[in-house]
Amino acid sequence: MKISNTKLGFSLLMIPSKVFSLFFLLLISINGLAQHKISGIVTDGKGKKLSAVEIFNKTAGTKEFSNANGEFSFSFEKNGSYDLIFFKEGYNIIEQIGITTGSHLTIALPKINKLTEVIIRKQNNKLFAIHKLKDIEGTSIFAGRKTEVVDISKLTANKATNNARQIFSQVVGLTINESSDGGLQLSIGGRGLDPNRTSNFNTRQNGYDISADVLGYPESYYATPTEALEEIQIIRGAAALQYGTQFGGLVNFNIKKPSEKPIELTTRNTIGSFGLYTNFTSLSGTNKKFSYYTFFNYKKGDGFRPNSDFDSKNYFANLNYQFNDNTSLHLDYTHFNYLAQQAGGLTDVMFKEDPTQSNRTRNWFAVDWNLFALNFKHHFDHNADFSLQLFGLDASRKALGYRSNRVSNPDTEGTVRDLIKGDFINWGAEARYLKRYKIKEHTSAFLIGTKYYQSRNTGLQGPGSSGSDANFNLATNEFPYYQSQSNYTYPNLNIAVFGENIFKVNSNLSVTPGFRFEKIRTQSEGYYRRINQDLAGNIILDDTTEENIIKDRNFILLGVGLSYKPENKIELYGNVSQNYRSVTFNDIRTASPSQAIDPNITDEKGYTSDIGIRGQISDILTFDTSVYGLYYNDKIAEYLSTNPNGSGALVRYRSNVGTALTYGIETMFDWSLSKTWFHDNDHFIWNAFSNIAVTDSQYLKSDAPNIESNKVEFVPLLNIKTGTSLGYKNFLSSIQFSYVSSQYTDANNTKTDVNDNTYGIFGEIPAYYVADFSTSYKWNHFKLEAGITNLTNNSYFTRRATGYPGPGIIPSDSRTFYTTLEFTF
Fold first, then answer.
1. How far apart are the C-alpha atoms of 297 and 313, rounded to whole Å?
2. Mean pLDDT, residues 800-811 taken together
3. What Å distances lie between residue 372 and 116, 212, 224, 368, 489, CA to CA?
4. Per-residue pLDDT tens over the stretch 4-21
5. Shortest CA distance to 315 belongs to which of 292, 335, 337, 331?
6. Beta bridge partners of 326
7. CA angle 132-146-435, nearest 5°?
C-alpha cells in the first residue's frame, strides 16, 4: 500500500502532539517532596530592592537571580549548610558562609562609587572561573557533555575584527580559516572537521539557527560581532541529540542583555592597518517591564592584499517584555549586508615569491542576511519550564569572478566571469518543555522537545559580465554559450522530536540518556547545461540535463552522558552519541571547475564520544582534560582524480571515501597567578593559560584508490595556544602564542609541490605559529584599546580553496595594528 507524503507528514506531526500530551499529564502530576530552601531579599542597604543580582551557590555550583522585587530562592535535595556569593556589577560582593536550609536572608549590597577594570575582572572571575555550562540552563540539558563558554568580558583582544584566534583562544582543538575580511565571516572547525564557514557546527544566535540552511547548506555567511556578545557557548558532538545532527556540535552566540538603566549608549571606533575603520554603536535600556538592546556595526577596509577591499553594515534589535516573574516574550531582528572584493588564490610558487600579490581584479562577493526570531518563555509553578522559539531567514549570497582552475593564469578584462547566486528562505519552530522532579531525595529532570523546519532555496550559475565592476546580473546575451549553466530549487523539510532525562542516581552521580527522531526530506530540482567548444569556437556539445533528486529518510539517534562529582568543583564526565550529517547542496551539484562530485554521494553516519575530568582548584586553577573519538561511516572527503567528464583534467573528486576515525587528547587550564602569590592586592591580576590538543586520525577502510590507512584531512597533530594576561587598576594587557602543525587538505594526503605554479589547490597546509598582543586602559567613561596581531609578521596560510574565494592558497594576514576608542554614556 502506498502512503502519500502528505499523510506521512501529517502522521509524524501528530506524534509530537501525543507525546507532549502524555508527558504533560504525567509530569505535572508529580508532586515532589517538600524541598529544603534558602530564600531572601537583596537591597542596596538604603531600602532599594535590587533585581538581577547573581547569587552563586559555591557548595552546589548553581546560580540564581533575584527577581524584580529583589527576592531569591534556592531549593536543595536535603538539609545542610551552603556558601552563597551575591554579585551585581557596581556593588560590593557579599559572601555568606554556612547558611543553613530554612533560612530567610536580608542581604545589603553597598554600591561602589568607583570600580577599576581589574576589580571588575576579579569580581567576574570569582563567579565565572569554571568555563562550562550548568547541567541545566533554561530548557536545555548539558549534563555529561563537553561544554566550553567564552566570556567576552574577560577578553583583551581585537574584538572589532572578530579575531577568532584570540576570541577562541581557550577553546581546545579548534582549527581556524583566517582571512582578511575584517571578521565578516567565521570559519572554525574542531577535531578534524573542515573549518570552512563553520559548516560542521550547528550555528546559532541567541538559541536560533543563523546558517543558510541547517541541513542543505549549513554554512554561516553571517558572524555576530564580538563587540555585541556576552558569551559564546560551544557544546561538542553529543549536542547532536538536542540541536541537530552535526558532528562538530553546537556554537551559540549570546548577545548582551539590555542595560538595567533607562538608557545606555556605547560607541566604539576602531582604526587599523590597511585602511581598516569600524564603528560599533549600541543603545539599550529598561523601563519597567520593557527592555531593549540594539546595535549598528559598520566596517570597511582595504585588506593586506590588492583587490581585497570590503564594506559592511550590520543592524540588530532585541525587544523584550516581562509579563511577570514567570513569563516573557523576546523579539530579535538582524540585518547584515556586505560587499567584498576577493583577491583570489595563489600557487605555491606565487605564495613563496610574494604572499601579498593578487592576479584577480574582477572577483566580487556580496551577502544580504535577514534573521527573525520570536521567543516565548514560561516557568510553571510545578517547577517546570517551557520555551517556544519561532525563527526565519530571508537571505542571499552572490559570487562573481574569473574562475580558471589554473590559478597562475592572469585575469583579462573583456572575458566572461562566472556568476553564482543563491537565495535562502527558511523558517522553523522549536518547542521545549523541561520538568524537574524528585525520586526519593534526588532531583532529576526530563526534557522533551520538537522542531519543525522547512526551506525553499535556489541556486543559479551562469555567465557574468565582461566588466570589472560588481555587476551580479546574468550576461546570457553577451555569452550565450557559457560552459557552466545551472538553475536549481532546493525544497527541504525537517521534523524532529528529541528528549533527554537526567537521572540523579545519588548526590554525586547522574546518568543522562537521550534520543532524537529525525524526518529529513531534501530535494534538488532543476537543470544544468554543459557546452563544449573546439579551439575554433565551434560548439561540439550542447547538452541540458533535467534533474529531480529526492532524498527522504527517517532515523533515530541515541546517546547517553555520565557525570560524577566526587567532591566540590571537580567532575568526571563522559558521553557517547550517534551522529549524522546530511549531504548538502554543494555535495549534489558543484560550482567549481577544479572540483567534481560523485553522483551517488550519500549522507555521513557515525559516533562521537568524550571522557574527561574538569573543575576548579581553590579558586586558583580551572582545568578541563579529556580524550575523544569521532567515528565516521561513509565519510565525505576529497581526493585527487582525473575529471570523470572525460576532459582528463586533474580535479578534487568529492565522494563517500570510506570509514574514518579521528581521536585525541585535549587539555586546557587557566591559572590565576595573582591569586596564588598576590592574593591581597585587589588592583593586580595575572593569569596564564594553556590549550593543547594532540590529535591523530586514519582512514580504516576505503574502496577509493590510495585512501586506506591515510590520515584524515584537516587534522593537525598539534594545536597549541598559550598566553598570559596582566592587569593593574585600569590597565590590562595580554599576549598569546599559537602553533598548529601541518595538515593534509585531501584524503590522498597529497604532498606539497613547491614548484607548483599552476593550481595551488593540492598539497599540505604547512605548520605555522602566530603571536598576538593586545592592551587596554579605562578612564571614567572612556576606554582605549590597542594591539598588534601577527606580531612577528609571519607569512603563512590556513586554507587551500577549491573554489571561492580562490581557487588556490588564501594567505593569512600579515602584521596588523589596531586601536579602539570606546565611550559609554
1. 6
2. 90
3. 38, 13, 14, 14, 23
4. 443 333 333 344 444 444
5. 335
6. none
7. 75
Judge contact between 448 and 19, C-beta under 8 A.
yes
d(CA 698, CA 715): 10
Question: Rounded to whole angstroms, how far apart are CA atoms 364 and 401?
Answer: 6
Spatial distance between the Cα atoms of 589 and 484, rounded to a whole number of angstroms: 12
Q: Lowest mean pLDDT: which of 110-119, 280-289, 527-536, 765-774? A: 110-119
Please state, rounded to an integer, the average pLDDT across all residues of the chain. Answer: 88
Which pTM was predicted? 0.89
Cα dihedral across residues 196, 150, 280, 224: positive or negative = positive
Q: Which helix (H) or strand (E) holds 333?
A: strand 327-341
pLDDT in tens, 529-560: 888 777 777 888 888 889 888 889 999 999 99
Which residue from 719, 813, 749 is spatially nearest to 175, judged by alpha carbons?
Answer: 719
HSE-CB of 492 using CA atoms within 13 angstroms? 27
Answer whether 31-113 and 251-824 agree in fold.
no
CATH of domain 251-824: 2.40.170.20
CA-nearest of 29, 25, 26, 34 to 443 is 34
- What residues does 652 pair with on adjacent strands? 595, 640
The x, y and z cell numbers of residue 689, run together, are: 593559560
pLDDT higher than 50, residue 738: yes
For the domain made up of 31-113, give the CATH fold: Immunoglobulin-like (2.60.40)
Region 247-263: mean pLDDT is: 94
CA distance 695 to 701: 19
Domain boundaries, the chain: 1-25, 31-113, 251-824
